[in-house]
Amino acid sequence: MKKQWTTIVAIILMVIVSFFAISNMENVPVNFMFKTVTWPLIMVILGSLLLGALIAVLISTGSMYRNRKQIKQSERKVVDIQAKSKEDLDQNRKEMQQMMESQLRDKNEKIAALEEEIRQLKGTAKM
Predict the structure, then answer these.
(1) What is the number of other CB atoms lying within 10 angstroms of the CB of residue 21?
(2) How many Å from the N-terminal Cα to the C-terminal Cα in the chain?
(3) For the whole model, what pTM was predicted?
(4) Which residues partner with 40 through β-bridges?
(5) What is the DSSP letter of 24?
(6) Per residue in 56-83, pLDDT tens?
(7) Whose CA is closest to 29, among 19, 44, 12?
(8) Which long-range contacts (CB under 8 A, 24 or more apart) does 49-54 make?
(9) Which of 30, 36, 115, 118 has the most CB atoms lying inside 10 A of its own CB?
(10) What is the pLDDT of residue 3?
(11) In whole angstroms, what is the distance from residue 21 CA to residue 47 CA?
(12) Is the dihedral of CA 64, 70, 73, 75 positive or negative?
């Protein structure tokens, strides 16, 4: 359905351009600084239109290239930051794990010492 609408719009535009071309067939002088030529007005208008479109495409291509380059640089920065963040998280996790294991050993040693003290107290209480 979309292609049909595109075709219809293209046909309408061609009809409009054809009427425009027929109504602008007069010859006009065009001065190129070093030479003056006479062309039909429609050729001058269409030539100007095409030249303007070409300039617009060239300008937009340059800015599009810069935008793509900037996007790639930004994506690289994001990847680098994510990698650094992951490294930092891994390092923090290792440090926390070591600290927790150390605290666990200390608590286990304290529990063992208290259990030994309880055994000794029970042994002296029986006597």
Answers:
(1) 15
(2) 103
(3) 0.48
(4) 27
(5) T
(6) 999 989 889 999 999 999 999 999 999 9
(7) 44
(8) none
(9) 30
(10) 80
(11) 13
(12) negative
